[in-house]
Fold each of these.
Amino acid sequence: MNAVTTHPLTLHKPAPRALPSGPWTRQAVLALMAQPFMQLVQQAHAVHRAQFPQGDIELASLLSVKTGGCPEDCSYCPQSVHYDTGVDASKLMAPDAVLAAARAAQAAGATRFCMGAAWRSPTDRDIAKVAELVAGVRALGLQTCATLGMLAPAQARTLAEAGLDYYNHNLDSAPDFYPQIVGTRVYDERLATLQNVRDAGVKVCCGGIIGMGETREQRAGLIAELASLQPAPESVPVNNLVRVPGTPLADSPPVDPFEMVRMVAVARITMPRARVRLSAGRRELGDGIQALCFMSGANSIFYGDKLLVTGNPDVDADRALLQRLDLPVTGAST
Ligand code: SAM
Ligand code: DTB
Ligand code: SF4
């Protein structure tokens, strides 16, 4: 009998339609991630099609409402006071300016508006001011998101009462890699804030960064942590490190862009219902890799010419890309 060699592209079994979320072990996620690339993409795409039959892409806009001067030492971040990156510290923006930016984002097609602040942990006065911003943005009909650092339970409740839909607080990497990138706080403090957000009834947006020198196993470790949160995050931003001059990670070797696709694919498979967002670092990915990420389950992007302090693809290029790929935009009337 002739020996039959099976090419990785030749799948004899249909990919599973959906997998239950968490708890996931690092080894189980690593096994998923290490599959032959096309097999992984196909499996993730099947889960995505089953969960999001319309295949729409959410447009989320970001605004840095309080920039720079952050006391934390996150080695990827241009806003840390520890590094000389040329980012000046500024005060919290006035409500009028924030609302004008939110209206502009909405007019450009965004349905979610995320306000970021370079704080370690906001004061109660800060929270009162941000609550006002949240209420104003919500009144425009946008979904609201904020990322303000560590929150105490009562602070999370104040934001919830103001109409905050999502809180972004990233685990960033696997617990065993975390001490190499952040020295001013520990992983458990991130988890405590996530719990406070959950307890307040706010949806969780939580993801991480690739390209900081972590191993593939540590990337799998991050996904295992995220997918094992009970419940799993509703939004999962996957950032490709933006290497900002002046930060300790400025000279990190770029990660193979196919690792980004693998990361998106395992996020989709392990957290089937989540909005998986292609976040920072899209400019370096190029159109082809982004298309593979959409195929593998990414269904949200940060939309707008700027992230917090670094650049993002311009809105016309993003619109054109989605059109070229026949991908509908969430909430669009046509
Ligand atoms: N200070 C708050 C905090 O750390 O939670 C909120 C703002 S912080 C800038 C939000 C997230 O942006 C970080 O957790 C990190 O995942 C991401 N981020 C920051 N700098 C980045 C960079 N250079 N490249 C990619 N992602 C980055
Ligand atoms: C997230 O995961 N990525 C966004 C958002 N959440 C707040 C921030 C990306 C920051 C990229 C570098 C900068 O512009 O500061
Ligand atoms: Fe501060 Fe957030 Fe930047 Fe860390 S990531 S330095 S906490 S703004």
Note: Residues 70, 72, 74, 77, 79-80, 118, 120, 149 surround iron/sulfur cluster (ligand 3) (CB under 6 Å).
Amino acid sequence: MSEQKLSGEVYYPSFEHLGEPHVRERGELQREAENDYEGFWARHAEELDWFEPWEKVLDDSQAPFYKWFTGAKTNIVYNCVDRHVLTPRRNKLALIWEGEDGEFRSLSYFALKREVCKFANILKSLGVEKGDRVTLYMGRIPELVLGMLACARIGAIHSVVYGGFSVEALHERLEDSQSKVLIVADGAYQRGKIVPLKDIADEALQRAATVQSVLVVKRTGQEVNMEQGRDLWFHDLMMLPIATSQCNLEVMDAEDPLFMLYTSGTTGKPKAILHTHGGYMVGTYTTLKYVFDMQDQDRYWCAADPGWITGHSYIVYGPLLNGATSFMYEGAPTYPYPNRWWQMVERYGITILYTAPTAIRGLMRFGDAWAERHDLSTLRLLGSVGEPINPEAWKWYHRVIGRERCPIMDTWWQTETGMFMITPIPSDPLKPGSGGKPFPGLQMDIVNEEGKPVGADEEGYLIIKTPWPAMLRTIYGDPDRYVEQYWKRFEGMYMTGDSARRDADGYYWVIGRVDDVIKVSGYRLGTAEIESALVSHPAVSEAAAIGLPHDVKGNVIHAFVILKTGVEVHEHFEDELKRHVGHEMGPIAKPQAIEFVDSLPKTRSGKIMRRVLRARALGEDPGNLATLED
Ligand code: PRX
């Protein structure tokens, strides 16, 4: 327990409940990482298996194209699966899954290896080779995890598209990645209804030319169109002799790509963030080990979607690297009743729960009783990610779910960082609403417009000064944009795109995005994508999207639209446009409100002044309008 005096509201850890964590005090890791940063990461890399050792831990000779563990050979799947099968963990559950309809499946490490090998052999039979891209578009079902691991096993690069995205979003990602194979489910259950994923994919495929084969996983069972010569049922192939349970593992260079994941940026199309086998593996393994204090007896549940980075790093790779039991739930938190989550915590004896503030606020609305009727005594650690957590939600989570004994790990990170960056560890004193300090060894700072550090409690740009193993290597197919986007604004520093302040105790308080990225229910969306979905409607001439604060979702989308001349707006036109955005981008991108306007406020260089739009939507004073063109 820490002796230091901290300002503000502070929650101190209790070792009585925590047990014996990997480290009893942050300083142990901090000192080691500060004394020898590369040695610190090398020590953790040595806890994993490599086919050949590295020559260099960090190669910064071509910064900002950093390389980690150069010369080393490995495969992340060997460390996630194969090596556990050689130990008594072989019969331990790797994955437990519950469907929204109550279906249940579990896979031991042994079974996981068998299923991944069979899946990988099917991919090989479809001609997938090392370096090929494979897109996966499914709900939260075990085949998504198996598919990701199967790709990685044979050296293919997976690109998971979130099942909540729709036609144009999927098309764009298929096209940009030049995927050879698409793995899709017939549908996904969401609140008792079926999302027709295969139908959406069919429409996207009409616009995308590169896909040669479509592997269809049966989940919801409704009738779907199967195009001859292109579409194949996964379960049919699993019956064939090609689907054997032995599949050689591709030996990968540490720097070989593992996956790409699209995320929204300031302008234009979504960008594919590229992660590698070696560094990403070491980063996710180490951070999960300490931040959620992974112990062999844990039942860990990260309630995110594998379609986002949180799911990649901390449902799939991080837990399996740690030999943990990872739980995954398919559906909505409140289906059929608001106690669904707490029922599952009780049923499976979940010890660690990691979710997003928006989910906590959503469940909090239903009151305490839904959680109180369940035995949540197995929980020992809680986590939060995706957006700043307001202290009220933090305290509810701590009191009602954690029963005042479970520390909350508020982890700040990004698709780009691949791993936790600002985060407590369980023995740290916590302040509700703050993620605490950078993970040991990382140097981060808050700077002003000129890149100079700001003082305590002052707001500025959040930047990162040290390279880290799980960092993105580039934007797939666009290295210039990688440099431009992250490394140009402040020389030699990685720009996160967030604003933050740091208090006198060194605790970071992340405020939010400073660019045109909107976080809706923790999901990252770019204004440019929403605007282009609006403009793809034949009646729309111009559009602007902004985020407005919302109690549960954090932000909602508010859009301004200029119609083409001569277009008559009928009574339900706003709904029609919302539906159009939902169809093209996905339900999460639907604006909550659309205002029809005659012009948009722009600077002389033609950039939309969102600040003015935000003020108008909130009924506030827009402030200085000197740069306004019109
Ligand atoms: O604005 C920050 C916010 O989420 C952004 C990254 O979004 P994404 O790439 O989708 O990854 C989300 C999950 C890792 C960040 O730039 N963010 C993430 N975690 C937090 C957060 N904001 C405040 N507190 C957090 N714990």
Note: The chain is about 30% helix and 25% strand.
Amino acid sequence: MFLRELLAPVSGIKGAGPASEALLAAAGIGSIGALLSYYPRDYEDRSVIVPLSGWRRGPVCTTATVTAHDWIGFGAMRTLKAHIEDSGERACLLCFNRPFLKNVLPVGGRVRIWGRFFYKYGELQASVFETDTEGGKKFGGILPVYPLSAGLSQGLLRKLCKNALAQYGQCIEDEVPAPVARSEALLHKAQALGILHFPPSMDDLEKARNTLIFEELFYLETVVGKRAMERKNHGNSTPSKTGAQNTGLQKRLIERLPFELTGGQLRTLAEINGDFDSPYPMARLLQGDVGSGKTLVAFLAALAVIEGGGQAALMAPTELLARQHAENAARLLEPLGIKPAYLAGNIKAAGRRELLKALASGEINLVLGTHALFSADVQYHNLRLAVIDEQHRFGVIQRQKILDKGKTGVNKNQIPHLLMMSATPIPRTLALTVFGDLDVSVIPDMPKGRKPVETHLAKESNAQKVYDFVKKELDAGRQAYFVYPLIGDDEESEPAGDEGKKITGAVQMAEKLEREIFPSYQSALLHSRIPDEEKRRVMAQFQSGATHILAATSVVEVGVDVPNASCMVIHHAERFGLSALHQLRGRVGRGGSQAYCFLVYSENGLSESALERLKAIKQNSSGFVIAEEDLKIRGPGLIAGIEQSGYLKLGIADPIRDSDALLRAREAAFAMLENDPALLRAEHRCVAAVLERAPPFVY
Ligand code: ADP
Ligand code: MG
């Protein structure tokens, strides 16, 4: 059977009683299969004997002669201190609560020791150690080190894994199809598992890891490949239009714009129109840096669908952003006869009922909103396009839910076109994994006349200079954002790890900005706990220029678009992540004039990596480059997009580190699916097993 089919309870393992069963259950290990998939996080190499004189750091296996016994403390608390020596190098072993070791470590005896040595008071010592006779085999070999949670011990996990492998190892089947396993020179699954838990040597370990890594990636790409093929085979979407040419409504919108579309926008639009023209639903990821004009492309896409008699929905992660999209849609599209509407969770009963009726009847043909767009009571007449803005903020399930709304209308079988937009570029290898079944468009260029935002670092003690500069911009009729990491009202407690230093929040600073720093200008405050009505008023006033200064938290991070704002001052900039800083900076420089971003940071407690982040932002203006920097500083595990994929629970593989294996796995998986159509119906046991844990068919 397959490893995941080993569902027998752990109590079936020799040496596992009810107590250990409960401990394992608490750690989420409910079966023998789950126990064997609980991979070590590290290893302790006890196979090599290192002389004491060669000790550098950490745990080590060594041999030495016991030279003397000392006793420290007295009575029942007496602790044995055994002095050892090897080739003139001395150390001592502190035997807390183990007085019996005086017999195991007799003076003059030669012993083998595995211990965690460290220097204390100029003496090399260990209190955590195990002993054996010289040449003994008690703790030779390479031992697994498992991630531990409450109550679990290395000893218990080692014992149970060892016994589980002995009892059940023989019946674990290979999963990767034999031809692929052969060409990749993979080990047998059972063998790889055995080695991974108890490697005979570091070289063997490498081979076992490679086998299991490849298997995981092969699975992943099988799922990705199957979904891609199913989408292409799902031919229920009648072409909305003919040719990749722009439609009448698209042309009319483009003519009305006071600017020209960029090359990237034009190309992307042609790609989208091409998708509408093909017989299967679009699934496209649109990547473009902050401010590259993705929203407009989304509107143009919506126009094509509406012209063909369908409806379009544009979903954004925050109400602030959704509302702004709705306002832009009203401004740009109403003159073309489109009926846009805004739908969010806080729309009151009566208004909401009306709105839902108009959506269900098809009277409204473009709806913009938040998660509310896929609430249970929302019905569409003929939803043909779902646009997901800032897609990295949504999960697979939410994506699926909005697509399912295609079936609530006249065509029960309908899968809408899907356009996902993101300013957080995804490294290529990830695009192949998480989004491997999507087509990708990129807008590489910025609208004409945009100048890169001038970015400066400023110490907190120099903040006054920043204010002086901002004052000049305000005097010239421009507007400014001041952003803080915290709201700073009483409800909020300081995040941990702050060394007790108080930081100023948006609330106090808004007051200070208004009263002391810029008394002749209007300022306003915006954060997540301000009531929605008030939020809307504040944004409208800032948008219209009635207020000049907006003090805010990172709520303004996504989407907010006020072209007249030329200054972005970020206080405690060291507390923000790279992509947040980049997004915040992207709020300015949206008009034709030069814009400025000031990263104000406090020097005390400034970590190395925080300084690196600030420098990276100062030196780079491209979101694509910054995303790569982010990867270097933070490592791949934290990249937005990995966790959110839902099914991408990789235990041992890392798509970035293992990108070579990923590409080979992809090729093998796709070839397998193409050569054997039966696999698509999941008649093959391997694929069936894969699809068991895959999410439902999305496209
Ligand atoms: P993002 O890609 O970050 O979502 P937006 O869609 O918010 O960017 O666009 C940023 C601003 O640029 C908006 O004010 C929009 O009207 C404007 N814009 C979009 N396309 C162009 C263009 N081709 N030329 C000039 N300005 C443009
Ligand atoms: Mg946007």
Note: The two ends are 32 Å apart (CA to CA).
Amino acid sequence: MSHQTKKSLGQHFLADPGMIEKIVRAVDPRPGQRLVEIGPGAGAITRPLLQRHQTLTVIEFDRDLIEPLAAMGEELGAELTIVHADVLAVDFTELAGTGLIRLVGNLPYNISSPILFHALDHLSVVSDMHFMLQKEVVDRMAAGPGSKVYGRLSVMLQARCHVTPLFRVPPGCFRPPPKVDSAVVRLTPRDPAELGLTQPKRFEQVVRAAFSQRRKTLRNALATVCGSEVIEACGINPGCRAETVPVAGFVALANALGDVCVSEP
Ligand code: SAM
């Protein structure tokens, strides 16, 4: 497929057959599963997925890629459903219907975090996700407390999913090559009972406030949300910084605060 790539849409197409195979092997589609690929582009992953799985839904924003993708589906005699839309406007829950979907994609890096949060909003219909992102983002997603890159993204994702970085993908695997290293990550939804989060909205608020001023102590960063005594009662030192608090600590704080209405920080 010849196509002038569009920088504004984060178009870096995979061109390394070995790496493409490695990604498809990591996804390992099984009969009966419903796969949804975000940003199929020129079909680098779409084609081998269809050759192996025969049934696939893809979500692509670039109108110039729709017809070539449809032609690929026909050529392979596969059942390819093309959703021509901005992925952030696609209701995954509606797309899933009564079943579960597996999300796959070499994501447009400029909107990778919004896509991750969008997927979290529909997590109850997602059985797993395999995404390629900037390696630096994958590092942040998987970071633990005490790490320099542990932050809001790490906590929000790890509270809902097991985050498993799989492998690094160097720039030379893409056309055109991006300026940064990439990595493939697997996200598997956690059983909500595992962490016992009862106040998801409050959790979001506490985590946002705690990391909005990373250099402040938790006592100060959360000043508009709760007092030191609540932080202490959760077994957390109010004088520490958010980047040292484990996910379970934020869950305890949110649960302790309950759903009482407080002003936004
Ligand atoms: N999967 C292909 C590959 O690996 O070669 C292309 C990956 S490229 C990094 C990202 C793809 O996402 C592009 O095809 C781009 O057009 C598409 N895209 C960008 N923004 C999008 C959006 N908001 N919704 C859906 N697709 C989008």
Note: The mean pLDDT is 95.
